[in-house]
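FOLDING PROBLEM:
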Amino acid sequence: MGIPAKIDSTINALGQLCPMPIILTSKKMKEMKSGEVLEVLSDDAGIKKDMPAWCNSTKNEYIGIVEDTTVYKVYVRKK
């Protein structure tokens, strides 16, 4: 999985533990338009399972994740 060609917004959730990255994502997605892509930066490994589960429950599209050495970059497209 690579970085999407166009990222419309980014959330910095570094230092935030579960469930904060998901809460911040949920709030930001409410401000975004359908089809826009959100990048979420997190250093909480829980995001690897939490974000796909959140996307499944909200019907937003989980694009994927890029794992850096200490940062997870997660990509979600608003439904």
Summary: The longest strand covers residues 61-67. Residues 16 and 44 are 7 Å apart (CA to CA). The radius of gyration is 11 Å. Strands lie at 9-12, 37-42, 61-67, 72-77.
